[in-house]
């Protein structure tokens, strides 16, 4: 991913990565690391996005979530257009440092998803005997805003 100007330590031996106290994120072949955001108060999963080294460094430095947008091919601050900024309460990495977990509070309309829903996970996939492949159900999560009024066409 372009823009990986931030430098972190190089991953060492597995026991150093898993037990040590140095941040040495393991970015994938495209330079990304999965970033999961949950509500700091309720634990609700809000979204999953990708960070590169620069986005992770900006997140750490500002206390607000930044990501690498694969579609826009640039760094974006969550909420830069909608006002739904994700304010970091706690930032963790998993055991092998190839993912991060952000406990956040949402500023703005209280919705993390660009569709206006509180969470990006607003649909469920039925499972088990009798479940039809390819079918989704609405999970009942509310919309916090109308995307048509928040995201205005640029021109």
Query: What is the topology, as strand order, of the major beta sheet?
Result: 2-1-6-5
Q: Which structural class should the secondary elements be placed in?
A: alpha+beta
Oligomer: single chain
CATH class type of the domain at 17-115 = Alpha Beta
Distance between the termini: 28 Å
Radius of gyration: 17 Å
Number of helices: 3
Mean pLDDT score, rounded?
90
CATH topology of the domain at 17-115: Ubiquitin-like (UB roll)
Residue runs with pLDDT of under 50 for 5 or more positions: none
The biggest beta sheet is recorded as: 4 strands, mixed
Principal-axes shape call: globular
CATH superfamily of the domain at 17-115: Phosphoribosyl-AMP cyclohydrolase
Helix/strand order, N-terminal first: HEEHEEEEEEH
Which percent range describes the beta-strand content?
25-35%
Protein topology:
Layout: H1 14-19, E1 33-39, E2 45-51, H2 53-62, E3 66-69, E4 74-77, E5 86-93, E6 99-106, E7 123-124, E8 137-138, H3 147-150
Parallel strand pairs: 1-6
Antiparallel strand pairs: 1-2, 3-4, 5-6, 7-8
Write a concise keyword list for the protein shown above:
155 residues; four-stranded mixed sheet; globular; Ubiquitin-like (UB roll); alpha+beta; two-stranded antiparallel sheet
Structural notes for this entry:
- With 155 residues, the chain is of the alpha+beta class.
- Helix content is 13%, strand content 27%.
- It contains 3 helices and 8 strands.
- Strands 2-1-6-5 form a 4-stranded mixed beta sheet. The protein has a two-stranded antiparallel ribbon with strand order 3-4. A two-stranded antiparallel ribbon has the order 7-8.
- It is globular, with a radius of gyration of 17 Å.
- The two termini are 28 Å apart.
- The mean pLDDT is 90.
């Amino acid at each position: 991913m372009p823009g990986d100007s931030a430098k972190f330590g190089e991953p060492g031996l597995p026991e150093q990565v898993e037990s040590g106290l140095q941040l040495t994120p393991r970015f994938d072949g495209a330079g990304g690391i999965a970033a999961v955001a949950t509500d700091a108060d309720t634990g609700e999963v809000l979204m999953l996005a990708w960070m590169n080294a620069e986005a992770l460094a900006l997140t750490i430095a500002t206390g607000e979530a930044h990501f690498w947008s694969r579609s826009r091919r640039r760094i974006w601050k969550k909420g830069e257009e909608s006002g739904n900024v994700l304010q970091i309460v706690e930032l963790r990495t998993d055991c092998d440092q190839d993912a991060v977990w952000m406990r956040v509070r949402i500023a703005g309309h209280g919705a993390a998803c660009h569709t206006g829903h509180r969470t990006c996970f607003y649909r469920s996939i039925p499972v088990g005997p009798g479940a039809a492949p390819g079918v989704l159900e609405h999970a009942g999560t509310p919309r916090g805003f109308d995307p048509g009024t928040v995201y205005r066409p640029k021109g």
